[in-house]
């Protein structure tokens, strides 16, 4: 993830140098869904001076834990181990974070297993961000539980609009 995050930062810097963009972190959102949600979360945390807003839609916080076949909590995970120094900083570049998930559990493996994992670990991450890192729901941490959404582009497209309205209300 670190190399991918560095690449995303290079892309942002290229775009900012080439086009007339709003360059400040408060005007820049990084977001993704599933594994892309995990990557957006990671990138936004380590490069918060460039990405002030993070959108993690049905993020795959669970993936490292499942692959390692462990019952560890997120707090004990390699993900949090790597991000801890960045998350504990309570400075002006602390990113705002949106995390969401769907509750639909039909339509095959992705919605029955993957989105269930995304739901469980996202709830755990929200709790961890509040308890250990001082995030406050409704201020710099946002969550959305989509009662009819699943692990698919249609659900993420709907929730994308909610993220934009939250981060850019005017």
Layout of helices and strands, plus pairs?
Layout: H1 2-18, E1 29-33, H2 35-46, E2 53-57, H3 63-67, H4 78-87, E3 96-102, H5 109-133, E4 141-146, H6 153-167
Parallel strand pairs: 1-2, 2-3, 3-4
Helix pairs in contact: 1-2
Question: Can you put this structure into words, describing what you see?
Answer:
This protein has 170 residues and is of the alpha/beta class. Helices cover 49% and strands 14% of the residues. The chain is built from six helices and four strands, in the order αβαβααβαβα. It has a four-stranded parallel sheet with strand order 1-2-3-4, sandwiched between helices. α1 packs across α2 (35-46). The longest helix is centred in the C-terminal third of the chain and has 25 residues, at 109-133.
């Amino acid at each position: 993830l670190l190399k991918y995050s560095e690449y995303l930062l290079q892309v942002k810097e290229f775009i900012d140098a080439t086009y007339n963009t709003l360059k400040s972190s408060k005007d820049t959102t990084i977001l993704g869904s599933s594994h892309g949600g995990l990557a957006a979360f990671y990138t936004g945390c380590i490069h918060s001076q460039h990405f002030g807003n993070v959108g993690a839609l049905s993020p795959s916080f669970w993936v490292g834990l499942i692959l390692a076949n462990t019952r560890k909590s997120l707090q004990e995970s390699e993900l949090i181990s790597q991000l801890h120094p960045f998350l504990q900083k309570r400075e002006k570049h602390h990113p705002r974070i949106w995390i969401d998930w769907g509750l639909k559990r039909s339509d095959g493996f992705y919605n029955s297993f993957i989105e269930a994992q995304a739901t469980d670990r996202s709830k755990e991450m929200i709790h961890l961000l509040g308890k250990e890192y001082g995030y406050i729901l409704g201020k710099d941490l946002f969550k959305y539980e989509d009662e009819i959404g699943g692990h698919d582009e249609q659900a993420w497209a709907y929730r994308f609009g909610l993220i934009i309205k939250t981060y850019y209300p005017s």
